[in-house]
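Sorry to interrupt, but I need a hand with the structure work. Could you write out one complete protein record for me, on any chain you like? Could you add the entry underneath, on a fresh line?
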Amino acid sequence: MTSRIVIRSILLFALLIGIGALIKLTPLGDILDKGWIDTYVRNEGIRGELIFLVVGGICTAVGLPRQAVAFMAGYAFGIIYGTAIGVAAAVLGCMATFFVARFLARDLVAHKFPDKLKRMDAFLRENTFTTTLLIRFLPVGSNVLTNMLAGVSGAAAMPFFTGSAIGYIPQMLIFAMVGSGFAVEPGVRLVASVLLFAASGVMGLWLYRRYRDNHKLLNAGVVGSEDVGASEASER
């Protein structure tokens, strides 16, 4: 057990050094610069799309706000395609952080955030897809910390990634719209952004109430444990 922890720690340390060097020695650190987008991404076809996916995924994995990635995706690719590329990059970053936490940083995360991990595990283990949607729709919390805690928790990977991808869409669409310079009056663009943001929040609240009511039924004995087990099996 001890040797495994040491090996994980060494691999994690090497990974962090590699990411730091990548940001320092490559254009990765300049992703927020439109000049970088113009040089390496825009009008570069599939090559530019792949570069953006990789760079955007790494940036969201290490903590860059996914909204910033969506803004630059909108600038580079337009609203619709920019939203799709931005969401894909955010999901790649989510997957990277999730699996690093699950296979390399489990002991570190569990030691650093024991209380948060306990709450996240209880929240995500049951109905992972729905609870992940709830987390992503509500604009609260840290994206990276959520991914790390989910990786260490008992959450199933695919429902977590699928829920994250769908839950990312509203906010990513808003920022891709702003980044694209959507060709309408600024006031109309602002109203559209506010409405999308509000819709995301309303959906999050609806999911929260549904989750809360389901737990009330379960605690009252209205829903049996076999029903929950069947739900989890069908979801996973």
In short: The two ends are 30 Å apart (CA to CA). Residues 216-236 have pLDDT under 50 and may be disordered.
